[in-house]
Amino acid sequence: xxxxxxxxxxxxxxxxxxxxxxxxxxxxxxxxxxxxxxxxxxxxxxxxxxxxxxxxxxxxxxxxxxxxxxxxxxxxxxxxxxxxxxxxxxxxxxxxxxxxxxxxxxxxxxxxxxxxxxxxxxxxxxxxxxxxxxxxxxxxxxxxxxxxxxxxxxxxxxxxxxxxxxxxxxxxxxxxxxxxxxxxxxxxxxxxxxxxxxxxxxxxxxxxxxxxxxxxxxxxxxxxxxxxxxxxxxxxxxxxxxxxxxxxxxxxxxxxxxxxxxxxxxxxxxxxxx
Length: 274
Ligand SMILES: Nc1ncnc2c1ncn2[C@@H]1O[C@H](COP(=O)(O)OP(=O)(O)OP(=O)(O)O)[C@@H](O)[C@H]1O
Ligand SMILES: [Mg+2]
Known about the structure:
It is a single chain. This protein has helices at about 15-25, 40-45, 60-70, 85-90, 115-125, 150-155, 170-180, 195-205, 240-260, and strands at about 1-5, 30-35, 95, 100, 135-140, 155-160, 185-190, 210-215, 225-230, 235. The strands form 2 sheets. It has an 8-stranded mixed sheet, with helices on both faces. The chain has a two-stranded antiparallel ribbon with strand order 9-10. The chain starts with a strand and ends in a 15-residue tail after the last helix. It is an alpha/beta fold. Magnesium ion binds near residues 13, 37, 41 and 139.
């Protein structure tokens, strides 16, 4: 499953993306967590220490050159579909079985920029093949205007995070319309910071035909990291994630039922060695 997380600024996209990644890794899935926000902070939600600087893929000049056959900068020829499948293993920051990839912004590209770095990022989003037991969670920057058609269509589902603030649901509706225009089919909403059932009911009503697949309360523990690396090298849930795990699992189940994807229950019968 490839799930994109979007919504208005500050609604809780990164927090939810980290919670989904944590819940999935606890169920033995390999998770590719993609931070597609140029103002990246998924790493800290996943417990990567603040002093650790992760080089975004868009700044890995040598790798981009090697994959695309291009010198950095513009002009000249380069491959539009570079090999990307090994990038999570090779270049991801591992938090247990979560492979975090920070995409970074493509500087100076402007609209319609075709430069080696953007070709690589696009190929990564569109062509990254994932094993059936793997999950890809993409934390997006606010709004989806920057999302290309190819990327949108390569996602199995998009979650729009909304909160009880007055414009949030309107933004959600706008995102839904844009997502529909881009050819995305499975669009869901999650209500964040809802402490009363009445808020959930209002949001559900305002959302109209966008299914509300779950809600999360205000929980100050969510302001810390969501996942951390345990002493055994495995990803370990924070107290905040543990407290909200049931809700997150219910959301994932709801998506699976509605998208018609394979069961999340790992039966081990068809696992390939990795
Ligand atoms: N349910 C919650 N309870 C308490 N704090 C929360 C909750 N959800 C998110 N937060 C906090 O609110 C802040 C914004 O959340 P987050 O960074 O996840 O939003 P975002 O949508 O990714 O923002 P941006 O648009 O800047 O990327 C963070 O400090 C986060 O820890
Ligand atoms: Mg964010």
